[in-house]
C-alpha cells in the first residue's frame, strides 16, 4: 500500500471524537454492548439513589395521577397477611395504566421491593424509554415472543434475592376488553424460585385507557387480590399456569358479583371464562358490557 494511503486509512474518521474511532485491522474488535431490548442492564435502578427517586415518584406524582384517573377500590389485601418474603403477582392486562395502578395498590412490605416484567420489544427500544421504565416502574426487560434464558435467569435471581415480581401472564394488553390465555412465565418463575403466586384481577382500566386509545378517560377501577397459590405436588409450569388463570377468573367473577356467589360457581365449575364467548366481535363487545356492573362514569373537573 502507498505510504500516504496507509496514513489516510489510519486517520480518524470525520466527526471524531463525537463518533466512534476506527480500529486497526490487526486488532480484533470487542463485541458491541447493546443498551436496549432484553440486554438492557437494570441493576442501577435497584441501587439506593434510584430506589429513593422511585419512592418519591410512586408516592407522589404517580399515586396522584392514578387516583385522579382511576379512583381505585382495593379488595383482598387481608388475604396476604400470612405471607412473608417475595412473591409473584400475576394480573390480567388491559391497559398501560395497569402497572402504575398495581404499584400503588400492592401493600407493604412488597410495594417498594417489587420489579415489573415489561416487554423488551416495547419498553426497552431505546435508551430513553429503557431508563424511564427501569427508574419509574422498576421494570426489567422480558422477551414475550420467545423463551429467553437470560430473562428467566434475571427474574429468578431477583426473586431469590428477596425482590417480588409483577407480571402479566397474558403477554400483552387485551385487544377487546376480554382476557387472553395465560402463558407459563409466571408459573415457571414461581416454580423455579420456590415462591407463591398471588393472583390479581383489575377491573375498569380498559374503559379508561384501552389499547389503541390516545387519551385516557377518567373512570373507576377495582383491584382484587386473591389467595396465594403454591405449587402442588406434580405441578409443572403448564398445570400451574392453568390454576393461576382460573384463580384470576374467580376474582373477576367476585368483582362483578359477590364473594359468595363467585365461590359457589367456582365449586360447580361454573366460573365465567376470562376470554369471553367464541363468537363475532360485536357480540363479544355486547356480552362484555352486559356482564359487567354499570360503572359510575366520572368526568374531568370543570375549572
Q: Layout of SSEs?
A:
Blueprint: H1 3-10, H2 48-70, E1 72-75, E2 88-91, H3 98-105, E3 114-119, H4 120-123, H5 127-136, E4 139-142, H6 149-160, E5 164-167, H7 185-193, E6 197-203, H8 205-209, E7 221-225, H9 237-256, H10 259-267, H11 281-290
Parallel strand pairs: 1-7, 2-5, 2-6, 3-4, 3-5
Antiparallel strand pairs: 6-7
Helix pairs in contact: 2-3, 6-7, 7-9, 9-10
Give an overview in words.
The chain is α/β, with parallel strands linked by helices. Helix 2 crosses helix 3, helix 7 crosses helix 9 and helix 9 crosses helix 10. The protein has a single domain, classed as Glycerol-3-phosphate (1)-acyltransferase, CATH 3.40.1130. Helix content is 39%, strand content 11%. The termini are far apart. A seven-stranded mixed β-sheet has the order 1-7-6-2-5-3-4, sandwiched between helices. About 2% of the residues have low confidence.
- Number of domain units: 1
H/E element string?
A: HHEEHEHHEHEHEHEHHH
Q: CATH-wise, what's the superfamily?
A: Glycerol-3-phosphate (1)-acyltransferase
CATH architecture identity: 3-Layer(aba) Sandwich
- Top-tier CATH class: Alpha Beta
Structural class: alpha/beta
